[in-house]
Amino acid sequence: MKTKIDRVIEQYPASVFKNRKEHVLVRNTEAPEPQTITANTRTIPGIITNRGCCYAGCKGVVLGPLRDAVVLTHGPIGCGFYTWGTRRNKGRTRGDEQNYLNYCFSTDLQEGDIVFGGEKKLRKAITEAVKIFNPKTIMICATCPVGLIGDDINAVANWATKEFGVKTIAFSCEGYKGVSQSGGHHIANNGLIKHIIGTGDKAVGKYSLNILGEYNIGGDGWELERLLKKIGYDIVSMMTGDGTVEDLKSAHKADLNVIQCHRSINYIGEMLNTKYGTNWIKVNFIGVKSTIKSLRDIAKYFDDPDLTARTEAVIEEELAEISEKMEQYRKLCQGKTAALFVGGSRAHHYQYLLRDLGIETILAGYEFAHRDDYEGREVLPFIKEDGDSKNIENLEVEPDPKHYKVTLSQERYEKLKEEISLNYYAGMIKDMPNGTIVIDDLNHYETEELLKILKPDLFCSGIKDKYVAHKAGIFSKQLHSYDYSGPYAGFRGAVNFARDITMGLTTPSWKFVTPPWKIEPMLEGSYVGR
Amino acid sequence: MLDLTPKEYIERSALTINPAKTCQPVGAMYAALGVHRCLPHSHGSQGCCAYHRKFLTRNFRDPVMASTSSFTEGASVFGGGTNLKTAIKNVFSIYNPDIIAIHTTCLSETIGDDIPAFVAQAQIPEGKLVIHANTPSYQGSHITGFSNMVKAMIKYLAVNSNKPNGKITILPGFVNPGDMREIKRIMKAFDQEYIMLPDTSGVLDAPMTGKYEMYPKGGTKVDEIIDSGNSIASIALGSFASSDAGYELEKKCKVETKVLKTPIGIKATDEFVMAVSKLTGKQVPAELEEERGQLVDIMVDCHYHYHGKTVAIFGDPDLVIALTEFALSLGMVPKYVLTGTPGDAFEAQVKYMLEEAGIEGKVKALGDLFTLHQWIKQEPVDLIMGTTYGKYIARAEDIPFVRIGFPILDRSVHSYLPIVGYKGAMRVIEMISNTLLDRQDRDAADEDLELIL
Predict the structure, then answer these.
(1) CB contact residues (below 8 A), chain A span 284-303, against chain B
(2) Is the CB of B15 less than 8 angstroms away from the CB of A124?
(3) Is this complex scored with an ipTM above 0.85?
(4) A437-446: b (≥16 Cβ within 10 Å) or e
């Protein structure tokens, strides 16, 4: 039998159809073998994709949120300009530190630089940045033409480090590398491991954590920080929302890494595990039940009765604060359906929060995920590398003789592994009910058709899709920028999300879409006497 | 807020901080959206297209459709020909536009892709069109990109078929759909037929109907662009965004071109109205004369709200030039005038206006907002006028701020309402006045809070 999705993609020309059919699946919980999906392959030219580029993943996502570094875009003006203040990675200035989040730095390359090389201008730009700001760290991010004209940004970074004593790191994240933002995440991860993490030695408290893959969009990271500190954890570093290079330097000293966004930062999680012996667990602080589970999982890792008791007390306290409000919103949302198309984790995370509100997710897809984000990390050994993924360095690290520590006995490790997502992510697909649709690198044509066919009440995507859905009468919520609201993480965040979703679904505006004269008969008869 | 910006000015020649411009392709994309049933196509890597679509969508709060050649490293090494040909084939078969408007990026320009050669080899269905503009991001700004795309439309499509159509071609420049509607209303008041190119009204301010249309009703029709070659004259509004297209029409189709300022403010609108009147031999309609009278009435009645106030104006060159002129007409003092777009003509024109008015102000093309902030730190102003990006400076220095120009990302409705023409000038006065008076009210002591102002 043809599925709804078949009817959409069979309209494609043959070559596109052949490609796209591998990127979709209808969830079959009875399938004898685990279902597979193709992901992290190049988008076909001409397809209106939502994907961005390598630079966006490196500078825009991972490095951009660091408060205390001058992140200098080496290239023509656009790339730097578009990543200036647009991603809502909030950061608060502490004391007299240098906070660069409201600044955008670019070499603004001109034609002459493209012809004769941009290194000279880059050196000069760094010299000027040092003279004006005297920063502690400079990060150079390359854009497309930089790689093509052969600027040696690593040499410039080494020169600047030596010349000014300012740690300068080069990231070769030219936009054309890889197939999406994902390659850029990886490049940024590699750079942070190579040059920053492990170089500091700040004092670390008991129950210390790094929060990985939390970009503090709308203040999500602050909400997590509040919760975790309330329980008694010491947050060593946030990667990278409201984060600092200064904190990152000592990240290797934390007891545990918790990973929120698997796609963008799992490399650091894995490398910290190999290099320093630090374990990571996959958490999800989006949704009430999933927040509770994540808090309990972290407590299980430390296996301390006091910490466990404190965790339960905090959960109870937080629940008491929000339960009534959540119940009110749930009554208004119950029975609605949602389609989600977001980055590399949120399409999974938000299903939990929507479920808390009685909203069923009928379609979910990732923009730049890999197969492991869909199917679980068990497929990693079976993912075939292609030419595009081979272009991104797979950094090999070795145990650090000085800092490597074994934190769990083999026996305890095995036991914990059965109970929590220890050094493991199970992926999105397993959580999706029978008959729901999973779709990778959703494009405009598919969005338009699937909205028509599935008629979800709610479409959670980004700004490029938002008004397409609105024009079609479907409420759309941006899950990249939260429509400038938030936080949505944790208990209090869940209420904020519930409030915003309810507002969008119930705003009286929807009632005015059809003008009254299209509904009411406008010709009124009256007797005219002769 | 912006705590690291020092007061003392340190000369910079390589480092841009907080730019007041962006790159060519986004302007080309905006222009192409103003053609009916046109799909803009970005020949480069996906990121460019994604950034530009996001940026335009945030400004207009309407869908912005555009496709991309999705370059990978292979295409960057071996050339983007295969990508472009595949893209053209897929776009026509999946999205079915009438015309594809290709713009390049710094990536495809650096590797030297020959677009016309690729297009010549592409499969283009009967009756469909593909045009292109070179828009390297390392030259000019988004305004240059807009200008290049409009010029390309004329170059590819306009034909003088010796059948004069009695129309005036209006090249409105990089303005909002609301402005384009206002300019069209002025032409209608003259009862003068026109071709507007591009025309994003009805595309980026399309109504909510409950049905999504990938190609909304608005936009200049291809037939109209072809027919622009038969018009009696063209009026290019804004020398930076429109003059190249106007001169191209003159060169290609022998259509006389008049380059005017963007009609923001009373003088620039007068010039536009006079030009239409002279070109058509039609009298200025009473309706417009009445509006002008209303505007002058407001200017006289409210002058004390803003006369003598110092103002910093930044944004795109055509808008800033006209806005500076209007500020002078209002008796304001444009102390700092800055655009991110390169252009000696900008500096010359603004300096001349300031000199005429006996004002000593700082003027800069190819400037950035770090410079503007430093100027303000050295000597503050009473008001800042510019794009959303000015809000950081306004907050840091606690200066009233009027949002005007492109982009405005943090306020809505602006793209629907005009700032051009006499009506638009009234709106600009309202914005300036209200912003200054809101500040006066906020700062007033209880005993000084005036009920009537």
Answers:
(1) none
(2) yes
(3) yes
(4) bbbbbbbbbb
Distance CA A444, CA B95 (A): 9
Assigned token pair, A191: 């750079």
Does B268 reach chain A within 8 Å, measured CB to CB?
no
**Mean pLDDT, rounded, of chain A:** 96
Question: Residue A49 carries which DSSP code?
Answer: B
Chain centre to alpha carbon of residue A119: 32
Nearest-CA distance from B395 to chain A in Å? Answer: 12
Verify whether the Cβ–Cβ distance B46 to A51 is below 8 Å.
yes
Asked whether the beta carbons of residue A84 and residue B74 sit closer than 8 angstroms, the reply is: no
Q: The dihedral of CA B396, B397, B398, B401: what is its sign?
A: negative
Q: What is the pLDDT of residues B58-117, one digit of tens each?
A: 999 999 999 999 999 999 999 999 999 999 999 999 999 999 999 999 999 999 999 999
- Beta-carbon contacts of B183 under 8 Å, excluding residues fewer than 6 positions away, are B170, B172, B196, B237, B263, B420, B421
Q: Domain for residue A527, yes or no?
A: no
Cβ–Cβ gap A76/B65 under 8 Å: no
Torsions phi, psi for A338 (to 5 deg)? -135, 150
* Model confidence, pTM: 0.98
Contacts of A451 in chain B (CB under 8 A): 212
**Minimum-distance CB partner of A105 among B17, B136, B139:** B17
What is the domain range of residue A70? 54-175
Known catalytic membership, residue A160: no
Domains of chain B: 24-157 (3.40.50.1980), 168-289 (3.40.50.1980), 294-448 (3.40.50.1980)
* Residue pair B187/B166 in contact by the 8 Å Cβ criterion: no
For residue B435, pLDDT beyond 70: yes
